[in-house]
Structure formats: C-alpha cells, structure tokens
Amino acid sequence: MSPASERAPAKVNLYLHVTGRRPDGYHELDSLVVFAGAGDVLHHTAAPDLSLALCGGEAEALAAEPDNLVLRAARLLAGAAGVPARGALRLEKHLPVASGIGGGSADAAAALRLLNRCWGLRWPEERLLPLAAQLGADVPVCLSGHAARMSGIGEVLAPAPVLPSAGLVLANPRRPLSTPAVFRARGMAGFSAPAALPAGWGDAAAMARDLGTCGNDLEPPALRLCPEVGMVLTALRAAPNCLLARMSGSGATCFGLFPDAATAATVAAGLPAAWWRWGGGFTAGVSSLYSAAEPAGA
Ligand code: C5P
Fold this sequence. Notes:
By secondary structure, this protein is of the alpha+beta class. The protein has helices spanning 60-63, 69-81, 103-118, 125-135, 139-144, 179-185, 204-211, 219-225, 228-238, 261-270, and strands at 5-21, 27-45, 50-55, 87-92, 148-151, 156-159, 167-172, 244-247, 254-258, 276-281.
C-alpha cells in the first residue's frame, strides 16, 4: 500500500442489539464489530483543488450521489484544521453500496486517516473521532479500524474480546437497503439487553456458540423489506462447517463464520454468482493513525 493510499475495510456486526431509543430518534446499540479483508481503497495525489474520481466494480451505484461521504469528510477535516481542502482523491469501490457492511462509513474514515497524513496534520485518533461521529454512527469504529465493542449510537468504543482466528464469508443479494428504512420498519419492537461476553475465545466454534445467544435486532425488519436476506442466510447455513450465519448491520449483507479462512474462501466461491460474495478472514486492523504520545511533527 503506497503512503498515499488507505484501505477502507468492510465492518461486520457479529451481533447487533438495539438497546434503546434517544429522544432525537437515533437508536442506542450494543454490537461487536470486526473488520473483513474485503474493502475499498482510497488514493490521494497532490492537486490544488479537491476532487473525487470513482473506479472499481461497485463504483456505478455511487456515481449518482452528489455529495459523497469522502468529500464531506475532506471538507469537514479541512474546516476543523483551518487548511484548504485539496487533493485529487480516487476511490476504488469494491464493497456494495447501502449493504450493512459500512462501505460509505469506511470510506469516510479512510479519508480522515489519509488526509490527516497527506495534509501533514498528524492529529491523533482522539482528535479525529468527534469529526468521525459527525459523519455517521459507524464512522468512529471504522476510523480506528480495529475490532471493537460498540455502544451509544456507535460513538462509544471499547476493546473487543480477544478474537480467535476464524473464516468469514460475506454475501449480499444485490438489493440495497436503506438504514433509516430498516430502523423505521422495526415499528414498535422492544429493546434488547446488552450482550454478556467473555474476555476472549480460544477458537471459532466457542465464539460462534456465544454469539449464537445474541442476535441482530435489525434482521427481522430487514427480512420484511428484503426477503432475499432469507435466501442468503439459508445458503450460508447449508454450507459445510458453517458455525453461525447472521445479517450484518441494517443489511442486506449476511456473514457466515467458518473454522478458517480457506474454508470461507471455498464457500464464498460456491455461492450464486449473481450475489456479491467474499470469503477470507478477519483483518488485522488498518490504523495508520498517530498516537497521542507521538509528538506533532515527529
Ligand atoms: O449515522 P448514519 O448516517 O449511519 O445513520 C443513518 C440513519 O440510520 C440515521 O439517520 C437514523 O435514522 C438511523 N440510525 C439510528 N440509530 C443509529 C444509527 C443509525 O436510528 N445508532
């Protein structure tokens, strides 16, 4: 990865409990978020003005958006830092748009990390986090890029349990789902308690057993809006060695947990070609951020 590029990995909600609703309508959540090897890539080249070009297999669905989250992130950071917003950005879009794996959020977070470096700001993560939260509920966790227990509306992050190595399959039936529409479709559904999790798991099977006692509270409303989610879950559960299958975020992408990355890659390749699918392992994290202890300009 060149110094002027930044990965934007897919986030996966291994479970997602809706624990309450704030007076402003946002929902309080409890979720365990991990990052997949699949992701977009954002590139920067020095230029006097700010621009964004799109490429990659999933770029077409984004082209219609007048105000991409990457550009909003760039302008927000420039405004907060008092520097001109400049640079030619190129987004390699590999993740399906509006699909519950945080593609837009990951791109916005990658823009904050990349421009923090390219503009020579060297801000520590703590200083970027409030900007991330302004861009969307999932942007703070994507900024850190590490597995985390997420609460609040997404802005409260705590360390994840120690994760075992595991295989992960992602599959999307190629039906975009709007996050606000899925939250609205919950209607008067009640709230769940936060999950009780151990400090870590020794293997993927133990993790899947505990995660099996949790759920994704957005899965029932998403299934009503997009019945294809049910087909994806059925296909994942039917795959040999599937330990757990569940929807991520507000959908429609579902994930399957498998004992190892090689098994996951084989399973993904066998899913219907009309679906977006990926198989591999959790990623080791993307952070290129400066720590608060590192002196500015070092
Ligand atoms: O913050 P983000 O833009 O990702 O959220 C999109 C929409 O999803 C919000 O406008 C809100 O309707 C809903 N949402 C919510 N509670 C959350 C996150 C998102 O109600 N914690």
